[in-house]
Amino acid sequence: MTARNPRLGIVLVLIGAVLFGLNGGVSRVAMATPLTPELFTTLRITGATLVFVLYAALFRRSALKRPTGTSFLLIIGLGLVGVVALQLTYNVAITRLPLGIALLIEYLAPVLVVLWVRFVRHEEVRPRMWLAVSLALVGLAVVSRVWNGLTFDGLGVVMALLAAVSFAAYFLIAEHNVGVDDPLRVILWAFVVATVVMNLIEPIWESPGLGGSTSMLGRLEDLSAAPWLVVAWVVVFGTVAPFFLQMVALRQIPATIVTVIAMLEPVIANVLGWAWFRESLTPVQVLGALAVLGGIVLAQTSRTTAPAALPPQ
Length: 313
Fold this sequence. Notes:
The protein is mostly helical and 313 residues long. 71% of the residues lie in helices and 1% in strands. The chain has 12 helices and 2 strands; from the N terminus they run ααααααααββαααα. It has a two-stranded antiparallel ribbon with strand order 1-2. α1 (6-31) packs parallel to α10 (255-262), α4 crosses α7 and α4 (99-106) packs antiparallel against α11 (264-277).
């Protein structure tokens, strides 16, 4: 049996979190082109599916074998809710909200998961769960400045909350499937299902030309890039690469550690929003963001049984 390398695992998760965090900014650039959120989602999911299939064909052909029975039904649900719904709601949220806020709301998913396993599965959780939920809710209220009325786009907040629900559903379904099947086969077939659905909603062949150039927005607005290159970056470095790194990391360190380190993504998104898109938070909102992150970490560590790693965005 190959010895574990915890340091390697931590490095891989950190790189994956950075890539996921950067992906929100690059996705904004992609959707500043004539691409609609729906069409961009189709391109991203279809491209990722092709990469997963190619990788499996070259290195693990067993992953190409279609699951059967209940396992396949769960994978269909994974593709519909955890890939299609998550990507659509996420893409709308990041175009209507500050990047960091959208990610903070989406990352309420671990809190929702803990509430689900406590009250639906009736699993025991540590008392810290209640502190976690309180911190997360109070932190979000502070970030949103509810005492001034909702200062953020209403539809954006709704989409971010739906993204959190979709993310939680993805997590719960994937936690079951990955425990009994090859993680690569699970994610590959979930993306296959999502590709079929998205191409029925917004066919990839109706995509406008991705030639020419598009502004990099924010502080980089004077720079430009080819739209096809931006989409390719999202597919390879914003979807496939971070998930692959996370999957390899799970062979080196426990899933609970992977999950907690992955919580760096909202932090990175907030820094990126400030550095790239000139977004700002007041000192009070920064404290609220820290409270949300604290609640997420407490929630994720309140389960008495170790969950699997969070799936990709």
